[in-house]
Design goal:
Radius of gyration: 68 Å
CATH class of the largest domain: Mainly Beta
Shape: rod-shaped
Number of helices: 3
CATH superfamily of the largest domain: Head domain of nucleotide exchange factor GrpE
CATH topology of the largest domain: Nucleotide Exchange Factor Grpe, Chain A, domain 2
Strand order of the largest sheet: 1-4-5
Number of strands: 6
Number of domains: 2
Length: about 280
Amino acid sequence: MAIPSAPIIVKWPFFLADFVLVALGSAIAWSAKWPPTPLLILALVACFISGAVILIYPFLREHAAAVKLWEQVNLAEAAQQLDQLVTVANRVVAAAQEWEGFQTNTQKLHQQSGQLVDRMAGEAKAFSEFLHRTELQEKQSLRFELDKVRRQEAEMLQVLVHLLDHVHALRQAGERSGQPQLALQLANFRSACLETARRVGLLAFESEPGSRFDPNSHQTVDGREPSEGAVISSTVACGYTFQGQPVRRILVSLQEDPGGTAHDPGPAGLPPDDGSMAPTGG
């Protein structure tokens, strides 16, 4: 804030009065006889002191006016700063009240957030339990469907094996009929049936007559184990694998059993239906 200047006192009257007093004193001193008397000295001192006082008086007044004006300006600034301080104090009080309101709202929000978190945790737990129950139900349903599919697969496999066994017996009957053309047609028919079965993963295997009996690959129709070194006479029914899993060993007849008699291949050359045609793998 700019400080205004004090009014300037007209100084020439004071200068004139000082000049008159100094001139009067000088005239008295010039016209006096020496040595001067005490009264003369007192008059001279009074003239010079009065002149000095009159000379410095306007400067003293200007200084006093400037000091008073400066004090007034500072007092006004102090009052203005005090008003600003009051304003700041009011703002501080308002900010404190707003802060209290903010703390209150924060506490309410914290409580609501805690309730919301608890509710979400409960819902998440309920949803997790629902998913667990659903997963168990789905697993049970899938297990049931898988068992059903496996049963259907086993039944289908059993039907295919029976059909292929009949086709194999039919081909053997054609070979024994003495009609080469019929035997060839039946052989082609069997090859087509085997190729169709191969597409679903069912493979058939035969043994060459005269080969050695292997318990891991061969079995007799009656299920008895022959003596070591037994020789295969013919293949009664093929052995099968389904998708790489063994289904049944090759059913063979032997040239001679331990008692010296040949094995009976069964009616029409078909193996007995003893349930051994189910796949051993899943």
